[in-house]
């Protein structure tokens, strides 16, 4: 089943257990995938986009988030 809920920096941060500013830094440095949606200048990602990214990101060390 596809999870199409949209996550902001806050939800992504909670999912990977970091601060929202860390997620913003990841985006600034090109480490996050492109946002799936932008509303009023704020980026959002589908939960499935982030879950896939988590499994492939450097430093994952096999953790399941």
Number of contiguous helices: 3
Number of strands: 3
The low-confidence runs, each spanning 5 or more residues with pLDDT under 50, are none
Report strand %: 15-25%
Based on CA atoms alone, the radius of gyration comes out at: 11 Å
Spatial sequence of strands, sheet with the most strands: 1-3-2
Strand count, sense and closure of the main sheet? 3 strands, antiparallel
Distance between the termini: 18 Å
Q: Overall mean pLDDT score?
A: 90
What is the helix/strand order?
A: EHHEEH
Overall structural class, as computed from helix and strand content, comes to alpha+beta
InterPro entries: DNA-bd_dom_put_sf, MerR-type_HTH_dom
Domain HTH merR-type: 9-42
Pfam families: MerR_1
Organism: Streptomyces camponoticapitis
Task: Describe the protein's architecture and organization.
This protein is α+β, with helices and mostly antiparallel strands and 65 residues long. The chain is 42% helix and 15% strand. It contains three helices and three strands; from the N terminus they run βααββα. It has helices at residues 9-16, 20-28, 47-56, and strands spanning 6-7, 37-39, 42-46. The chain has a three-stranded antiparallel β-sheet with strand order 1-3-2. Strand 2 (37-39) and strand 3 (42-46) form a beta hairpin. The radius of gyration is 11 Å and the shape is globular. The model has no long low-confidence stretch (mean pLDDT 90).
């Amino acid at each position: 089943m596809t999870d199409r809920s949209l996550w902001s920096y806050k939800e992504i941060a909670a999912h990977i257990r970091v601060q929202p500013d860390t997620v913003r830094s990841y985006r600034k440095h090109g480490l996050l995938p492109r946002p799936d949606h932008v509303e009023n200048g704020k980026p959002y990602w589908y939960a499935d986009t982030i879950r896939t990214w988590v499994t492939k990101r450097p430093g994952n060390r096999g953790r399941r988030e």
